[in-house]
Amino acid sequence: MDDNEHAHTLVDRARDGDDDAARELIRQLYPMVAKIVRGYRPRRAAEEDLTQMIFIKVFQNLTQYSGKVPISHWVSRIAVNTCRNQLMAEKARPELRHADLSEEQAAMLENLAASDEALSPDRKLAARDLVEKLLAMLKPVERLVIDMLYLQERSVAEIQKVTGWTAAAIKIRAFRARQKLRRQIGGLL
Description:
This protein is mainly alpha-helical and 189 residues long. It contains nine helices and no strands. Helix 2 crosses helix 3 (47-60), helix 2 packs across helix 4 (71-89) and helix 3 (47-60) crosses helix 4 (71-89). 21% of the residues are buried.
């Protein structure tokens, strides 16, 4: 029995109320769900709470799982959409002002704009904080596509599988997000 057949057996048993099968499904899917949550978790949501919410949705909707795609694909779509909905619930500040940056972040921004050199290890943390602040200004769907496309370096096809969006929608959202980031960085400088 291959992994996919085994997963289908677990799904069928879980649908019939087998708690052991449900626990085994969670054990197998947890690492993937946790990785998605870490990548897209809104600032105000605890990782454990969001993961638990995702698994609740998975089991509430298990009867809707058709079995036509691997269970991991189906669950990852639920996980991404749950995180995206949580991000939408958090209103991002519409703009970041130079005064909102720490002294180190302001210096980092000016350095990044003026040079092509790689950052020293001690400056990488400040740069990451700055990137987080800039990304927080984007709409949740824009933040998601920028993160997947550029930070995780996923292909458009991979993003399509996870989100269900068309390739055109992904490219348009990425383009608009890059424009917003450029304007924001220009305004900070």
